[in-house]
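[step 3/7] fold_predict: job queued, chain A
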Amino acid sequence: MKITKHTQMTKNTLKFIILLLLSCKVTAEKQNPANKPSDQIFVNILQNTCKIYEYMRTGNGLYLDALYKNPNRQSKNFTVSTASVGAGLISLAIANKAKIDPRAANKVITTFKTLLGKDSIKPERNKNGLYRHFFNAKSGLGKSEFSTIDTALLMTGVNFCRNEFKENKIISELANQLLFSVNWQSCKKNNRQYYMVQDLNGKPSAVTKIFNEYLILADLCSWSAQAPPVKITEDWLRAELNGKKVLSDLPQRMLPLFTFIFPLYLSPYRANDKSFLVECLLAAEADKKWWSSQTSKSYLWGSSAGASKKGYNVDHPGKNTDLYVHAPVIMAFSPFKEEYKNDFIKLTQSENAIFFKYSEGRIPWRYSEKLKDWQAHRVEGVDLSPLLFGSAALSSAIGFEYFQRNSRLPVK
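[step 4/7] structure written:
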């Protein structure tokens, strides 16, 4: 018994040392000024990403689910995505910090008032304060589900603006109204399981078990209950790919990379947790290694969700049949590893098809290594957001510390 216990303690000690060393490594790369360049390429990408969100913005301050390259198609597009509104709000917070948009504060107020039903429309909400996944920009009505995760992503945007414009009393008051208008505990089944959907009366259905993007929802539930955040432990489910064990919700597949990016940048608990950053980088490494078995171009990787030839794909590392490269997630991982930043630069220099252009906005978006003749005809607001996060984190005027600070939730 003593030998077994000693062996277990040794294993645990080794794991702790490895985790500590990895944390120090990524922290050192993150804090190195060379990793926050003022290179014009990243400045341009940040500015252009903010432009794309501005094109998605409606007159009443909401953000459409997608921006279509065809102007005629776009003129008939009135579908708002609740998660896209959250991303749009973060773009305003960043645009203000980067001095890109001097009217950002006024735009935030317009959005907040519309969300609260104090303007021309009243977006439909259920008994617990959840918004529909999609709804019409002109009426506020929709037929989609009342979504827990999309409401959570919306509120991360509200919270970012609350922190960015903390001296603005109107924004602070409206932001708190929104954050405290949701019954977050109604979204939770237990510490590991969360409801995905509710009906108009607040009855929940469809349960998911974290780890996945619902970690953001879990953290909002913890904040709401004034409880410690859910702790990720070694017994959490992990999928194995190319010898790397990565957090997942099913043992037979890895998750798309956005599921790591969202909590890393938007949750105050995960943005300030070095061990979670290590978990995120393991996912990136596993995806990049899988791509190396599919193509000789070492800069191609990034399995995530977005536009595809079939319409919309959710691509997983190891399950990405048409080899869709998602530039935003590569950008989002770039502040933490020089190799990934170099991959992103090489991608933008080598594959012209990666770019999406609308009016004066031009951004690296999606590209298929198998379907060479395909180019994306639209960009989705929520799936674009990692490009916004990564380009801001690489900016010497903003940095990843901005996300660590501005994701902090108010004291209840």
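[step 5/7] annotate
DSSP finds 15 helices and 15 strands in the chain.
The CA atoms of residues 293 and 381 lie 31 Å apart.
exit 0
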